[in-house]
Design a protein that fits this description.
disordered N terminus; alpha+beta; about 55% strand
Length: about 220
């Protein structure tokens, strides 16, 4: 795993905004939409031995041409990541278990609402994740269920694949929760772990115990 995974979240949050340019109408200068932070319950993460990292802002800007004027919208997303250090054979000491909670704001212009994650399929989300890695491959969906998250039903899909960890190609599972709307934002989550480990239950528990909004302090 490398730090490139962090850039996919900004891509996810901004990739579809340009497609709505023709519907937005006139925008005010320096229009900014910022999401509120999302996380999973501290006790649940701790039980699974996942360590919370400092939440980070990820910003994306899109420029629209409207009535011969160029206007820019800034979208401020939040990502909270958790890492689990694996102690299995050659992976010993590697941060091979990852969980991320991502929040993106609802963009509201002239009474219309837009959010690039609202209609994203699990394959859409995982594909944007996959594009950030030369050494990662995502294959077929091998499982699907509905879990309760933030008071709503979230479609949770599991994909098989592989990734390079510690210099070795490792069979890997990717767990993606579909978008859930809460408090004016859309929240998704991602879990990545070696398939030889029984981490799906822990990832599902973290999805079911998502919290939003949480304090930024």
């Amino acid at each position: 795993m490398n730090t490139n995974r962090r850039t996919f979240l900004a891509t996810t949050a901004g990739a579809s905004l340009a497609a709505t340019a023709g519907c937005l109408g006139l925008l005010s200068d320096a229009t900014t939409f910022e999401a509120k932070q999302a996380a999973t319950a501290e006790a649940v993460a701790s039980e699974g031995n996942y360590v919370k990292q400092e939440p980070r802002k990820l910003e994306a800007e899109r420029t629209f041409s409207v009535a011969d004027q160029e206007q820019t919208v800034k979208v401020v997303n939040w990502v909270t990541e958790y890492y689990k250090t694996i102690d299995v054979g050659p992976l010993s000491g590697q941060r091979a278990g990852v969980f991320a909670a991502v929040s993106t704001p609802q963009v509201e212009i002239l009474g219309e609402s837009f959010n690039p994650l609202a209609d994203a399929t699990p394959r859409d989300i995982i594909s944007r994740f996959q594009q950030q890695y030369d050494s990662m491959s995502v294959g077929d969906r091998i499982g699907q269920t509905n879990l309760s998250a933030l008071g709503a039903s979230a479609l949770v899909s599991t994909f098989e694949g592989s990734a390079t960890m510690g210099g070795q190609q490792v069979d890997t599972n990717f767990v993606v929760s579909g978008s859930v709307e809460n408090a004016g934002d859309h929240v998704v989550s991602l879990g990545v772990f070696p398939s030889q480990l029984d981490e799906q239950g822990a990832v599902h528990a973290m999805i079911e115990n998502l919290e939003h909004p949480v304090s930024s302090e």
